[in-house]
Fold each of these.
Amino acid sequence: MLKVTIDLEAIRHNYRFLGSICGSQMMPVVKADAYGHGLVRVALALASEGAEAFAVGTVDEGLGLREHLHEADIYSLMGPVWDEDYQKLTNSGITSFIHSWEQLKRLAQEIPKEDIIEIGIKFDTGMSRLGFEPGDAGKLCDFFNDNSRLRLKIISSHLAFADDPRMAHQVGEQVEILDGVSRIFAQAGLKHKKSLANSAAILHSPGAWSDIVRPGIALYGGNPFTGTSCEEKGLYLKQAMKVRAPVLSVHNLPKGRGISYGLTFTAPRDMRVAIIGCGYAHNYSRSLSNRAWMLYKDRRLPVIGRVCMQLTAVDASCVPLIKPGDEVFILGGNGNSSIEVHELSAWWKTVSYEVLCLLGKNEKTYINS
Ligand SMILES: *Cc1c(COP(=O)(O)O)cnc(C)c1O
């Protein structure tokens, strides 16, 4: 029932903006269906803007994109995970980031004798999530020199604190660790590119740019610095996603009456309420109950009572002309009162990334292709 609109020109604008800040090659991150914006449409829009490298989340996403982009460098941030992924990688032209010895050794066994594949190596330089230890660099050099059918193309790591201006020293430490690894590879004669920066680091940590940067959230218009001292760095970004929902019914709610499951909201005065066709079945979280706002023309209407599976109530007392068949924005809008993704994510008690991924699972249409 929700209608998601993706403005591809906003995404191209954000790409150009990031390119004007940082001269490194860009590898737009289009994992998780381009953060809900649609993998293929977003990647094609960015390719038309000059992007030649893309980071998908999985081998399958990479194969899907390869059908549309024959020439681009496609990187899979996660390497082979399921048994079948190893075979799928062969001849795919996808560069997988490998994070463990098990993956690496199995890949060496499974690629056909006549094949050569290029891979990336992911290092854990401080996030303790996925990746080789920096101390593995020497053994990795030996491995590559013994297994010439696996060719090292790029080394990478991910920053834990790029979006927190108070933690610049942490970013610096991770940069140094990856530089150290890079030197070891270079001394062993293994040419490679290096990549570390996400959106926040592109905007604020030039020391982390190196060869290729990996912008994600900023491409979609999310400002990684909202609420910090660096907020202005992301103010030129344009939010690409808008989400509308239909008004199903409008009626009075007399003073003292409760509304929705559990009657968690009681009318403090005579009110007019609108029932909106939107709920957690559309990934509009139940945690927005009694917390969020929706936009009707230029007025914001508070959500009252619990968000249900497909229905949510708002206080529409201030907009007497609202009627069934109208629509409200739950994200975005036209004009100054437009709901920004950082606002919706704060009401939702999460981050913009999650809001975009989840709402983007609804039916999408594209403008400014
Ligand atoms: C998601 C992701 C990115 C992009 O991060 P943003 O904060 O969205 O810019 C970059 N690198 C890796 C490894 C990622 O998983």
Amino acid sequence: MNDRPNRKNNFVASVCPHDCPSVCALKLEITEDGRLGKVRGGEQPYTDGVICAKVARYAERANHPERLLRPLRRIGPKGSGRFEPIAWSDAIDLVAERLLQAIDQSGPETVWPYHYAGTMGLVQRAALRRLGHLAGWSRQHETFCVALADAGWQAGVGIKRGVDAREIVDSDIVVVWGGNPVHTQVNFMHWTQKARKERGAKLVVVDPYRTPTAEKADVHLMLKPGTDGALACAVMHVLLAEGLADRTFLARHTDFSPSVERHLANRTPAWAADITGLPVDEIVAFARLYGATQRSFLRVGYGFTRQRNGAAAMHAVSCLPAMTGAWQAQGGGALYGHSALYGLDRTFLNGLDGPVAPTRQLDMAKLGAVLAGDERALRGGPPVTAMLIQNTNPAVVAPESLAVRHGLLRDDLFVCVHEQFMTDTARLADVVLPATMFHEHDDLYMASGHTFLQAAKAVAVAPGECRSNHDFVSLLAARLGIAHPAFAMDAASLIDRVLRDSGKPGFDDLLRQRWLDCALPFGQAHFLDGFGHPDGRFRFAPDWSAIGPDHEVMPPLPDHLEVLEQSSPEVPFRLVPAPARHFLNSTFTETESSRSAGERPTVLIHPDAARASGVADGDLVRLGNRRGSVRLHARLFDGVQPATLVVESQWPNTSFVDGIGINTLVGAEPGFPNGGAAYHDTAVWMTAGGAN
Ligand SMILES: Nc1nc2c(c(=O)[nH]1)N[C@H]1C(S)=C(S)[C@@H](COP(=O)(O)OP(=O)(O)OC[C@H]3O[C@@H](n4cnc5c(=O)[nH]c(N)nc54)[C@H](O)[C@@H]3O)O[C@H]1N2
Ligand SMILES: Nc1nc2c(c(=O)[nH]1)N[C@H]1C(S)=C(S)[C@@H](COP(=O)(O)OP(=O)(O)OC[C@H]3O[C@@H](n4cnc5c(=O)[nH]c(N)nc54)[C@H](O)[C@@H]3O)O[C@H]1N2
Ligand code: SF4
Ligand SMILES: [Mo]
């Protein structure tokens, strides 16, 4: 165990590692025997002592009896769940041998190191990426989360940063567009509530269902999924028509032109009402509310971009503060994510400081198609016959679950999963290795939702034989004969190296000062000295060709792009499998308190739709489409349009009646123009009674 920094009243400082915009500062109680006790919010100014319920109960997860503690080797058929413990050295030998065999047969690109954001710590998160680059294995196009949203934000604003969320205390109106912060980033609600209490700020929520965030709102625009571009354009139509646009700002800071104005003149509230299912009056009233002040804080979520038109929608929405000139005001402007604030040089961390082979990039959302040998998905390269999986649970979270499961069960595929629990993915593996948790290893954290760079040291003993991502990958690299100085460094030295390469204080200094606020001065943060493009102007007319290969369908000006998975008489409903409050993606599904709070997989159905389908509250129903079908229980709920269904996810597949989970129904066809999984762009049928 390392020394314990910042010890205060038996609490030590740490940082929440999970895939959440809030990246909270934490205070951890470490018990006499070196285990995790109570968890509280830290003093870092954005966290302000507030954390979510699931992390406040982290001891339950960290000290869980089902935590993986020893390396395991499969002894039964694939997927049987029969494993036996082995020594780490034998596990490393076995993994190395199987990788070398696969490479002998099909070349290095046959290996797919598959990883995502189970921990957001930069060093542990990048472990497999580092090894994969140096080994010349396949790379991945990271499409689970931000590919669509990033593309749309980049199109207009040109750089991934925005206004500091702490400015909300000076806002007159807060618009939460396509996100559900009560579930997904509780700290944002904490700041919003301050503004409401102190200034009477109004909260507007744009979401297809009445989320707990929408319940708290003054205005809820309950639109059809995938229609945000239409709503944003109609709002701009009203702003221009009613003299609420800031023409001086438009002229000075944007590429606004007569052709943009002509285009938006056709995007009337009546046109948008037809597409969104919202009444004209609501659209006009929202436009007037938004246009009445420049102190409008637009919090753009990820949720609304998980549509095949999500990048176009993001671009259209990001035009709003440019139209009103809200960027100029304290408490005005927009925030999508802050990653460009941090200026971290990760070349060395990613093993890219020397020459590396330019290997193919596989789309992580197309795991099923890749493993089925689909030639396009394989991008002309060899089949994938070996996978190392770390920090992600694709058997649950990836689209097309049935294809993923089928692929992972292939007899000629070797799979090693490094995990904290026996997840649905780990259960399908050949080798399962036990991983440390955040309080048992060192790491460095930036955030999308705030401006603080933070670091944390190991403060508890790793139980059993758990090893960190970096330690496992370094052992494997040594066994494979892959040399790089990073593999001889411990995590602390690696953190130090990244910080120094980036001109920041070193690891110890950062720990001592607890955080580094990377916020920019007002004028820069609000883009008054220029947006991210070379000419410094916000773009109503983006250059989509610079953003992704599938740019030809992209609208030249902000618009509703009709590339959604269409509902039809065969599949009349649109499904939104949104994030649940007590889970974080598929994490926390193992803890009793999260499960009992989350009950069971449930579909929210409008009473009219339920009546028409002969479904009563609590009934078992079956949802399906050409990809498969899923059984779960119904709850009647009037906070949704009749053709929309909502399932708060992501339950393990095994929690569903047939062991088949919700992402069975989600397609892996990418969004435009640069890919991205369109989780909430899913057309389904529904039958009562759970029959087929
Ligand atoms: N408790 C909890 N917290 C989480 C997560 C979790 O699973 N659970 N996941 C974490 C991760 S990985 C991420 S990326 C963030 C995401 O955090 P957010 O930015 O909040 O994004 P989502 O939660 O994906 O957004 C969900 C909302 O988007 C809405 N939505 C879906 N389609 C549309 C649409 O077409 N238009 C509009 N306007 N809204 C739409 C859904 O109804 C849902 O309410 O949260 C993180 N935090
Ligand atoms: N239906 C539906 N599906 C979705 C979404 C949705 O909204 N709806 N959201 C999508 C989004 S935005 C995302 S980001 C993805 C996220 O999907 P994932 O990245 O798979 O997220 P998690 O389920 O949190 O899985 C992370 C896994 O990493 C493990 N882990 C955590 N820390 C460590 C560590 O230090 N080392 C190792 N080796 N393992 C660790 C955890 O135990 C957990 O099992 O899901 C996507 N899937
Ligand atoms: S709100 Fe997000 S960052 Fe904060 S403790 Fe919860 S999961 Fe972690
Ligand atoms: Mo995500």
